[in-house]
Fold these 2 entries.
Entry 1:
Amino acid sequence: MDGTYAPGPATATDALKQLGGLSLRDLSMDTLLQTVADLTRTVMPGNPDTSVLLLVKDRPTTVVSTGQLAVDLDETQYARGHGPCLHAARTGELTEIPDTRTDTRWPDYTRRAAERGNLSSLSIPLLIDGEAQVTGALNIYARRPHAFDEASRSAATRFGPYAAVAAGNLHAYQAARDMADNLQAALESRAVIDQAKGVLMERYKLTPDQAFQLLARASMHTNRKVRDIADHLVHTGELLGTPPGGDRGRR
């Protein structure tokens, strides 16, 4: 399988069957999320654009979208700090705007939405990881008012679990990658600091603690990180921030 799907499912039920038949082993989470967004766009009424919002500790990101309309409206809400997709993600409530020209809940946002041609919208909340404060929303921005009826709302909520699983796995992967990068950086910093300590111990006959204190004083004097002071010393032999003949850390 190459990560693509057959275009143009006839109904939401067909689209959901198509999603259920995908092999998660053969798809990246980005591809699965984009597939959810694309299929939702295909079968929802009102010629919509769709997006998936990931909200991590109240910091929003659009992880996939089907067009510029969805991106613009997501980012308009992020800039204002409110709107239907943020409300859905924060409260866990399905959030619908029947007509952006008359809805009064977020007037500065709905005015912008109507100007961009979005006349109704539906945001489906995604509960991903409550302990890590990770939520999200699947957003459907229709180009006609009152686009959604009970059947389309019901169908839209059935797309939510697919988006939630993919978004949760994507967040977990990104968090693990960030942790690995931070750990690698920490190991590299420790290695260069240990090398610098060795240079100072040999040069000035210091103990390991005295060598580190000398690096720390150089860091304070130069307003640079200890790791940068250590790296400079290892590569040039020069201890920054220490005047010739000054205190070398001896007792």
Note: The two ends are 69 Å apart (CA to CA).
Entry 2:
Amino acid sequence: MINLHQVSKKFSQFQAIKSVTLTIPKGEIHGIIGASGAGKSTLLRLMNLLENPDVGEVEVNGQRLTALNNQALREARKSIGMIFQHFNLVANKTVHDNVAASLELAGYPKKERRSRVAECLRFVGLEGEMGKYPAQLSGGQKQRVAIARALANNPQVLLCDEPTSSLDPHTTAEILEVLASINERFGVTIVIVSHELEVIKSICKRVTVMAAGEIHDTVTIEPTGIEKSDDRPEYFIEQLTGNGGIGHA
């Protein structure tokens, strides 16, 4: 499904990725973790050629992206969705129009767009928020809109760059549940970059550990499951003190 073969990437004099080879099978939820500067996000962006490798080959969905011209690459990217840490929503567009924008860019038939947008927003639990603007939404709702936008073109691969790092524990659990549902229901291959170990452990089946632009190891794990957190203030006190509030100032 995703094959990287000896890819390298340098920014000026900084070698961000050093001859990385990695295979991610179809239908897997794969994690990439490591310290800041390890090359996690750069590696993810190489998977859809948002960053072009200096050397090496990238193959996704049976297509060698590094061999495609610009038009063919744009077509290939329709099957690769991406979710960003800071949502990347257009502030002056409604929820509906943010999701519809990806359909418009992909040439989706105009008469079918509204029903497809509604379908995607229904899946992430936001069908009733179509007319709102991003500023009227919580962080979790913004990320759900971003997920709906990424789903609109029926991707086979979903690349997630720190999708929960701006969110509280309760909202993080909700977003991870949505991603797990996408994988289970649609068979979408998901790659998640995160510096949060608990996020990776909760949902990923294999995890690549990076250091200094290289793969240190790739390990197979049994996902622990998504912890059902709470957004009550009492929950945070319980987690901090371990006794439901005794010991607070």
Note: The beta strands are 2-11, 14-24, 29-34, 55-60, 63-64, 80-83, 157-161, 189-193, 206-211, 214-220.
